[in-house]
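Researcher: We're reviewing a set of sequences before deciding which ones to prioritize for further study. For each one, I'd like a predicted 3D structure that I can look through quickly. This is NADH-quinone oxidoreductase subunit N. If possible, include the structure in token form so it fits the rest of the review sheet.
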Amino acid sequence: MTDLSSALQLAAPEVTLAVGGLVLLMIGAFAGEKATRLVSGLSVLLLLVATALTVTGPLGLAFGGTYIADPLSVYGKALIFLSSAVAIILGDGWMHRNKIAKFEYPVLIVLASVGMGMMASSGDLISLYIGIEMHSLALYVLAAYRRDSLVASEAGLKYFVLGALSSGILLYGASLIYGFAGSMKFDEIAAFASNNPGPGLIFGMVFLIAGLAFKVSAAPFHMWTPDVYQGAPTPVVALFATAPKVAAMILIARVLIDGFNLAHFQWAQVIILISLISFAVGAFGGLMQKDIQRLLAYSSIINIGYALLGVAAGTELGVQAMLMFMTLYVIDQFGFFAVLLSLSRNGRPIRNISDLAGLKQDRPVTAIALTILSLSAVGIPPLSGFWGKFYVFGAAADAGYWMAGVAGLVASVVAAFYYLRLIKMMWFDAPATEVKTDKAPLEAQWIAWAAAAFAFPVVIVALAWLEPLTKAAAAGVGVG
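Model: Here's the predicted structure for NADH-quinone oxidoreductase subunit N, in token form for your review sheet.
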């Protein structure tokens, strides 16, 4: 009983979210749609409680080493749970304004957070798969949230079918690894790989990487991303672009560095190749987009390429750079989506890039916020996007992958075109119609400005406390 109570104490964040999510589901089921605001508020509170339990909880191994509570998981889950809470806050007002608010939206995010937390704390291939499927099932439903929309239904179906395909690829890789290594645990796989890094094990590892790459929408496994981003409601896309990507990146770092550290040369080549393809697809694919959410889909692809450079380094500095990049990336993404959620014309959400034309005339403050966030995404110093790229390029160069870093810089220059096009639209183009942009709700305005403010020089001060946190997180991985 002592071992069980200790294990439950270590897994308290996930247990709290799972039990709380079921309670909220019952409240919504019995109270109906009138309880939507209450369920949303309680969901945010529940995620904040889970964050507090994560930060203050003990460290160690649970359930026979299948669950790991270490500095890496603590940092990752805190970022995941806070991102999920922000996604609920952003979505609640937007859903009500567009008359599609349902209590299932926050409940599904809470249940997805259980799986994402499990991904960050996975210690073997079984817990890895359980975490992925737990969060994926909730995300499939969220993608098709607007059941009356053919585009949303198509997005949900594509995500589900391709997600099932990626799960099959991942399971095939996991079965090969288990067949050759004789164990599911990352530490035992690492011990086997140190003596027998044969082709069978490497073959299984490549399949495992392919399945995980799908979850972060890294090219060439990105085929679901543009369509799902376009079809899903904007608040749901804000969630897709943040918390699940953090969970998957931490999982990739843990699997490869904890389980295959001594086969670094083999898997680093695969990760570098995926990064280079992501640079090309994300940079050039975004040039042709007219829908803002599809544009952000290609932006996410190229940014995942940058984050994978940190993982490819296979060092403590590389993991730290990846965590730094993902943290700043999440902040910028929430800023972008807060601005999008605050914009509407004639009562309808803005979706096309051309709708931003002339934004400075009736919403100059919002235009300034979106300009700051766009320049941050380009990587203009001293904005947060610059520091994120600075760290991952530095880690890649330190590990000897400076050519991949150069390719990333070139891709960043190409991608700058579509961010600068947004700025041009807002400040120099005349609006296509005389219809003015609707006034934004107060909560959407302050969230957008908070993100824009953090992207500006405030981030220089923030790095003073952010870097020690990421160093502590990187120390939780068996690198260096």
